[in-house]
Design goal:
Layout: H1 2-12, H2 16-36, H3 69-80, E1 83-88, E2 91-96, H4 99-106, H5 120-124, H6 137-151, H7 153-158, H8 160-183, E3 191-193, H9 194-210, H10 225-242, H11 247-250, H12 262-290, H13 303-310, H14 321-352, H15 355-369, H16 384-396, E4 406-407, E5 412-414, E6 417-419, E7 424-427, H17 429-433, H18 479-496, E8 497-501, E9 511-512, E10 518-519, E11 524-529
Parallel strand pairs: 2-7
Antiparallel strand pairs: 1-2, 3-11, 4-7, 5-6, 8-11, 9-10
Length: 539
């Protein structure tokens, strides 16, 4: 019967007998190969996937609500564990939420996760900005120039006078407004919106560093209030757009429809940023032309000047000189303003809601000053409790709570799970920084923990229990610059003024969605001078 069947096949299907023999040969070969390699490791399983995915768009609806994504993902981690995956339309994302897994991602697998995904925001708004560039030689070279010329510890030391001057200028403005109101005999009070107060300082420091000019007008000084307002608006919109999970990212084939309208907004913001940078670059080129060979007086050489002397018109790595200069200067301005402003605003909000800590910080500053009236850079390291306050602020309200998204360039293993190339990596730094297995009462504001149980925790990417600036080769390069400005601003403010909220009540601590984490409500306070009027002069 079997022979008859085989013969009948051979007449109707002439290739069946050879194919069958080939199939049996393959089975024999595969069996012998498996026996000869009994210890061949089995490919790791993929990480578990969170429930609640929708058809086609996956988990995208979970990340588009009123609640910030890092809080939503933190709740999912409570349910599914510290490592799980999401489907964001056509893409798969790995979410890690504890320090052990973060360490694995940014040490063993650091190079595997060193690139950025090609998202709509990265393509349109973040194009050519080195913080959002894919891993490669162009990214390395641009980052190196920016780090050495602006963000290094040596450069930060050289810029300390700029920070001191701008903080003192803000203090003087606030004092003069208070004094003017008092002299008028009015019962009204001067209300200060702290986010704007901090932003004005930060914008001026960053603009003077990068572009050699002050942006925010001070009493009796230069500045452009209209340009200041424009910059503040476009910076805020930039970070909102960069933190979005868009429909076009999830379903690229529907991008042409721009279903959520965000691509149109991204193109508008991108053009606004480029227009601003073009004006700044042309001003610098004209100044360079007017100065002949480009020689500058000592102290006038800002970062754009430096870049013009380093990068010629042809540029490098396929990018022309103007594009490189504009994009890198924009990156420094954008990264250096919103993040620092947000951290300072969270810090003063926490202190206003914890008066004991505020009083303790003020007492430390007064004691360490030893009767001197003005804070200088050399004083800052003496303020150990103030530094603990800044650390606790960064722990509770991490300025980039989900880190900037990474993407795997090659297959790797995380937590024993197989992660294929092309997987997006979302590191929930906020969840890590609030881990109850690491921090007792993790939701409580307790700066003292950094003077006792956690005094050895560093925040520069080495201790994965506390990585507010990220870690690995894509760690934020501006840590030293940011911390110096934060310490100088906060210390001088606390030394100079008594601070109370407008209504005497607590500050609302609701968070606002975006790439950066900022307070959703304005923090309005009354600043009352607590020193003699000489302290507020700029001399």
């Amino acid at each position: 019967m079997a022979l008859d069947t085989l013969l009948s096949w051979s007449t109707t299907e002439p290739f069946t007998i050879p194919a069958t023999l080939l199939f049996f040969f393959f089975l024999l070969f595969w069996s012998l190969k498996k026996r000869s390699q009994p210890n061949t490791p089995k490919k790791a399983n993929p990480p578990p996937e969170a429930g609640g995915a929708w058809p086609f768009i996956g988990h995208l609806p979970l990340l588009g609500g009123s609640q910030p994504p890092h809080i939503t993902l933190g709740s999912l981690a409570d349910k599914y564990g510290p490592i799980f995956t999401l489907r964001l339309g056509a893409h798969r994302a790995l979410v890690v939420s504890n320090s052990e897994l973060a360490k694995e991602c940014f040490t063993v697998n650091d190079k595997a996760f060193a690139t950025r995904p090609k998202t709509l925001a990265n393509e349109i708004v973040g194009k050519n900005l080195f913080g959002f560039l894919p891993y490669g030689s162009y990214w390395r070279d641009v980052k190196k120039i920016a780090t050495v010329e602006v963000l290094s510890a040596k450069r930060t030391e050289m810029l300390k006078h700029v920070m001191e001057q701008e903080v003192k200028a803000a203090m003087k403005d606030s004092y003069d407004s208070w004094a003017k109101m008092k002299e008028s005999g009015s019962e009204k009070v001067v209300v200060t919106e702290m986010e704007k107060w901090f932003a004005d300082i930060t914008l001026n420091v960053v603009f003077r560093t990068v572009l050699g000019k002050r942006l925010v007008a001070r009493m009796g000084s230069d500045g452009n209030e209209e340009e200041n307002k424009k910059i503040r608006e476009v910076v805020r919109e930039f970070f909102r757009l960069m933190g979005l999970f868009t429909v076009s990212d999830a379903l690229p084939y529907l991008r042409w429809l721009d279903l959520d309208g965000e691509e149109k907004k991204m193109k508008k913001t991108s053009k606004e940023l480029d227009d601003l940078a073009t004006v700044w670059l042309e001003q610098h080129k004209q100044k360079r032309k007017n100065n002949g060979s480009g020689e500058w007086k000592k102290g006038e050489y800002d970062f754009m000047d430096v870049f013009l002397s380093i990068v010629d018109d042809e540029g490098f790595h396929g990018h022309d000189g103007d594009t490189i200069i504009k994009a890198t200067c924009l990156q420094l301005i954008l990264a250096g303003t919103d993040t620092t402003t947000a951290t300072l605003t969270w810090a003063i909000s926490l202190l206003l809601n914890n008066r004991e800590a505020l009083n303790k910080a003020t007492h430390e500053i007064d004691t360490q000053m030893g009767g001197r009236t003005k804070i200088v850079e050399s004083d800052l390291e003496k303020f150990v409790y103030l530094q603990a306050i800044i650390k606790e602020t960064l722990r509770l309200y991490t300025v980039v709570p989900l880190n900037v998204t990474h993407m795997s360039m090659e297959d790797c293993v995380v937590g024993g799970y197989h992660v294929p190339a092309g997987t997006h990596l979302l590191t929930n730094i906020s969840k890590i920084n609030r881990d109850p297995s690491i921090y007792s009462d993790p939701m409580e504001f307790r700066p003292e923990r950094y003077l006792t149980t956690h005094k050895d925790l560093d925040l520069k990417g080495k201790n994965f229990e506390f990585i507010p600036f990220g870690s690995g080769r894509r760690i934020c390069p501006g840590i030293s610059f940011a911390l110096q400005l934060i310490k100088m601003t906060l210390a001088t403010l606390l030394h100079g003024f008594d601070i109370v909220t407008l209504d005497g009540g607590p500050v609302d601590m609701v968070e606002m969605s975006g790439l950066t984490n900022s307070n959703a409500s304005p923090v309005q306070v009354i600043l009352t001078p607590r020193q003699s009027n000489q302290v507020y002069s700029q001399n």
